[in-house]
Amino acid sequence: MTEHHSTDVDHGHADGLPEHKLRRTDVFPRAEKRAVRQVAAMFGLSAIAGIGTIAAFFAFPADRLITVPALGQMSAQNVVVGGLMGVSILLIGLGAIHWARKLMPDHELVQERHDLDSTYADRKAAIDEFWSGAEASGFINRKIIRRSLLGAMALFPLPIIVLFKDLGPMPGTSLRHTIWKAGEQIVTDPQERPIRPEDIPVGGLVNAMPVSLRKLQDKQGNSNEGVKSVIVLVRMRPDEIVAQQGKNWDYQGIVAYSKVCTHLGCPISLYEHRTHHLLCPCHQSTFDLADAGKVVFGPAARRMPQLPITVDADGYLVAAADFAEPVGPSFWELG
User: Fold this and answer.
1) Pick from 185, 255, 235: which is nearest to 213 by CA?
2) 223 by DSSP, 3-state: which?
3) Residue 207 DSSP SS3
4) Mean pLDDT over all residues of the chain?
5) Domain 174-334 grouped into CATH 2.70.98.10
6) Which of 28, 151, 218, 303 has its CA 20 to 30 A from that of 92?
7) In the chain, domain spans
């Protein structure tokens, strides 16, 4: 003989929903307690994994490598720290799902659509229902779940805070300066050929860089200086130059500007020689190279930095100094 429980949800709904079936945790207290322990164990293990993440960050040197099947050599610190953090997040999610499936109320409810503007009575009923649901979920009276969840959530941000240490030293003033200096020879990018003024015709554009850049990159393996130091050389008639960012910064109508857009840092070399406009291909910021590199169109908020240039004793183009303002996106000015 089949036993029927006298509950108001143990029968079919008039609206066509299937008959509600009680779960084992709804019927058997031992199953309920076992589910509580399982949820608490997941939250507890998540907290342990979070602590392990912090410990692994300090225990494994950044330059230690391990071989991962199918992936090859990888940083041991990245593998262990990332793995433990992933386990910590996974266990919080699995614990929450298991809690909802086994212990929280699972009665089917139907709510008719209504106007978005609720009455005071409806809002009060919603608040009362929220607290009723919170109590029914067991968050209030199941202390072991509440405490283990709060512990896991409290420990979870700590590995993220510790990982900020891996961002390296503060940049200081390094973002405001490049390797350009007085006498630094200008060479073509990437051929590295020295440039004479007569090599650039009126209306021509040459992509260039400092001669010492390649040696610096070979020595330090640092591409940041390359990003900051690349320039474009453009030649126009001297009488076409309206304004510059410094006195006599051109040489016989040749001007040098940073190649890095001041909007979001995209490289630029699209030049229209009739208007002397330099166009960024990413978001169409446009700069007038004949008028101090000022913005004439687009989202960029700052002009293109200009590099003062001259020639050396052998007649090759060289820098007269570094850029007078920061190179790159405008947010650098906020520091």
Assistant:
1) 185
2) coil
3) strand
4) 86
5) no
6) 28
7) 24-167, 174-334
Cα–Cα dist 332/14, whole Å:
65
For the record, the structure tokens of 308 come out as: 């003062």
Tokens of 63: 């330059």
Report the C-alpha gap between 264 and 287 in whole angstroms: 14
Report d(CA 104, CA 83) in Å as an integer: 30
Question: Which is nearest to 96 in space by CA: 23, 48, 61, 148?
Answer: 148
33: tokens are 């307690």
pLDDT 10s digits, 171-201: 666 677 888 999 999 999 888 999 999 999 9
3-state DSSP assignment of residue 210: strand
CB 303 within 8 A of CB 295: yes
Instruction: State which amino acid sits at residue 231.
Output: I
Alpha carbons 54 and 18: distance in angstroms, whole number:
48
pLDDT tens for residues 131-166?
A: 888 788 887 788 888 889 888 888 888 888 887 777
State how beta strands 231-235 and 254-258 pair.
Answer: antiparallel
Strand partners, 255: 234
Contact assessment for residue 273 and residue 283, using Cβ atoms and an 8 Å cutoff: no
pTM (2 decimals)?
0.54
CA–CA distance, 215 with 220 (Å, rounded to integer): 9
39 three-state secondary structure: helix
